[in-house]
């Protein structure tokens, strides 16, 4: 058991920031949050996995900059249409509720995705 934990501990010591971009104080990664909030029911990670319902997270990251994160947080919180062609983001109540903090975390994660 100890031998399996040693590599993980070494990664944590040698690369201290590696998990911080993805894990919050409760240990949930942004991907887990996206899955829990059912974002992945309409959005895929990569364009090649994209569903017809909504743009992929990477497509969003390529289209928007971090300067537009406040606007995207509002889209996550309020839904609406006209953000991406004719696709409409359902309002809260139709989809799972997302808090302000969760929306900020998800948007930051999406906008930091690499190609």
Automatic annotation (TrEMBL):
The keyword Transmembrane does not apply. The keyword Manganese does not apply. Residues 1-23 form the signal peptide. InterPro entries: Cyt_c-like_dom, Cyt_c-like_dom_sf, Cyt_c_ID. Keywords: Electron transport, Heme, Iron, Metal-binding, Signal, Transport. It comes from the Bacteria. Residues 22-114 form the Cytochrome c domain. This is Cytochrome c-551.
């Amino acid at each position: 058991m100890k031998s399996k934990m040693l590599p993980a501990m070494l990664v944590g010591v040698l690369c201290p920031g590696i998990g911080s971009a993805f894990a919050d104080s409760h240990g949930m990664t942004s991907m887990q949050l996206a899955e829990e909030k059912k974002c992945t029911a309409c959005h895929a990670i990569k364009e090649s996995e994209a569903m017809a319902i909504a743009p992929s997270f990477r497509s969003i990251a390529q289209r928007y900059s971090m300067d537009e994160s406040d606007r995207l947080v509002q889209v996550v919180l309020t839904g609406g249409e006209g953000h991406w062609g004719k696709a409409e983001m359902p309002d809260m109540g139709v989809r799972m509720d997302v808090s302000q903090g969760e929306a900020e975390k998800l948007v930051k994660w999406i906008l930091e995705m690499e190609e």
